[in-house]
């Protein structure tokens, strides 16, 4: 997808606007499956929290993907998108036993990450196939907010609690069919991932009826030119060899599962905004745009970097700009960034806007959420309409007219 295509879509659908490139999603999916082609049983479960639009779910379903979900609502969206229940994996955190039982009734794969719920669920439903999420106590991830496998994390059952876990399983006679881990996002060093995998292999030896091992994901994608990314091909080569050897030791051909979210959709996304105003102070040139952290919060929340292109003037002389939004608090997408000269009315494109961007959007300041478009087969397909004032009012209930104070 080229800049001229993005400009055309901005003209057609307005701004702000999210655009996703179907070909990029497909190429990332194929890259991952190719890297692990030496594994006989491989399954990709798309982590839909990254981008949960039903059209995106349908696109990945056509490619053979399953789903990784973290809430009952995500499970319902997956079913609505046409996924078979057995292709949906449910890994909640801190939810009630009631929600887990409600999801279980839908026929999806349950993954439990704490001893209390494990014991309660096992006592009531010993025959239900259950996966267990292990915390390997491995620090991995590009930011402390997205590192979930360390010792202080709220996620998973501590590997040091394995004897207690095994005792619960033996007492309840639960049907444990899988072991799962997820160390964090933006993993740079595949050796750290492989080290955590060995912990998972050791834990798996305690369970005799496993059908799969789930290694989570967290693969890093490049955010700027010459940026480091997870070497998927090298990881595929090393982990495939080790996984196949473990299956031989275990005496059974297990399924290897990954749960990529960002890896599949991040680079496919572009976020288009229009420049409302150029404001120069004594030290800074601000480009104020028609969006804010209500639409793209990651730079403010994680300090993440999104490369910004001026697609209206790509060959202009570069100047330094701070790109800021229209929210009434600190709302800065980029500080002192070199960008081709920006004028009021120009369209800027934020790269890597496919993951955790629209899915984390809000109506803060009572602003509308933007539209979403899928670029497929050389055309833009509207997959979510821009919100309207009626959408803001939809679930609000005003006081009766006759109410007195």
UniProtKB/TrEMBL annotation:
Q: In which pathway does it act?
A: Amino-acid biosynthesis; L-lysine biosynthesis via DAP pathway; L-lysine from DL-2,6-diaminopimelate: step 1/1
One GO term under biological process is: lysine biosynthetic process via diaminopimelate
Q: Which residue range or ranges hold the Orn/DAP/Arg decarboxylase 2 C-terminal domain?
A: 18-354
What does the UniProt keyword field contain?
Answer: Amino-acid biosynthesis, Decarboxylase, Lyase, Lysine biosynthesis, Pyridoxal phosphate
Matching entries from Pfam families are given as:
Orn_Arg_deC_N (PF02784), Orn_DAP_Arg_deC (PF00278)
Q: Which cofactor does it need?
A: pyridoxal 5'-phosphate
Which residue positions does N6-(pyridoxal phosphate)lysine occur at?
Answer: 49
Q: Which InterPro entries match?
A: Ala_racemase/Decarboxylase_C (IPR009006), DAP_deCOOHase_LysA (IPR002986), De-COase2_C (IPR022643), De-COase2_N (IPR022644), De-COase2_pyr-phos_BS (IPR022653), Orn/DAP/Arg_de-COase (IPR000183), PLP-binding_barrel (IPR029066)
Briefly, what is this protein's role?
Specifically catalyzes the decarboxylation of meso-diaminopimelate (meso-DAP) to L-lysine.
Give the multimer and partner information.
Homodimer.
What is the protein name given in its UniProt record?
Diaminopimelate decarboxylase
Q: Which organism is it from?
A: Flavobacterium muglaense
The gene is lysA
């Amino acid at each position: 997808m080229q800049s001229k295509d993005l400009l055309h879509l901005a003209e057609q659908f307005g701004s702000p606007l999210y655009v996703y490139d179907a070909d990029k999603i497909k190429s990332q999916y194929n890259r991952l499956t190719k890297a692990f082609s030496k594994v006989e049983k491989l399954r990709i479960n798309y982590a839909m929290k990254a981008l949960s639009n039903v059209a995106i779910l349908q696109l990945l379903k056509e490619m053979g993907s399953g789903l990784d979900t973290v809430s009952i609502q995500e499970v319902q969206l997956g079913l609505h998108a046409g996924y078979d229940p057995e292709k949906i994996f449910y890994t909640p955190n801190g939810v009630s036993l009631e929600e887990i039982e409600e999801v279980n009734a839908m026929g999806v794969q349950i993954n439990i990450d704490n001893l209390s719920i494990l014991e309660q669920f096992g006592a009531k439903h010993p025959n239900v196939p259950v996966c267990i999420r292990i915390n390997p106590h491995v620090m991995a991830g590009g930011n402390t907010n997205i590192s979930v496998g360390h010792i202080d994390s709220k996620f998973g059952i501590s590997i040091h609690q394995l004897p207690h876990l095994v005792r619960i399983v033996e007492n309840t006679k639960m049907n444990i069919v899988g072991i799962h881990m997820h160390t964090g996002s933006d993993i740079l060093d595949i050796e750290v991932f492989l080290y955590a995998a060995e912990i998972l292999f050791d834990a798996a030896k305690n369970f005799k009826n496993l059908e799969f091992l789930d290694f989570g994901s967290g693969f890093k994608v490049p955010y700027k030119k010459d940026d480091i990314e997870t070497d998927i091909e090298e990881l595929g080569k090393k982990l495939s060899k080790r996984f196949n050897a473990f299956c031989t030791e275990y005496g059974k051909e297990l399924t290897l599962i990954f749960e990529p979210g960002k890896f599949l959709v991040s680079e496919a996304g572009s976020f288009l905004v229009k420049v409302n105003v150029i404001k120069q102070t004594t030290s800074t040139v601000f480009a104020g745009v028609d969006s804010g952290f209500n639409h793209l919060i990651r730079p403010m929340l994680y300090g993440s970097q999104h490369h910004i292109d001026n697609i209206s003037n790509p060959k202009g002389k570069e100047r330094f700009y701070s790109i800021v939004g229209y929210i009434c608090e600190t709302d800065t997408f980029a500080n002192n960034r070199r960008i081709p000269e920006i004028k009021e009315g120009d369209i800027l494109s934020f790269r890597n806007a496919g993951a955790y961007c629209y899915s984390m959007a809000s109506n803060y300041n009572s602003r509308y959420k933007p539209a979403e478009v899928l670029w497929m087969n050389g055309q833009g397909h509207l997959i979510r309409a821009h919100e309207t004032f009626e959408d803001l009012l939809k679930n609000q209930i005003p006081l009766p007219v006759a109410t007195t104070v």
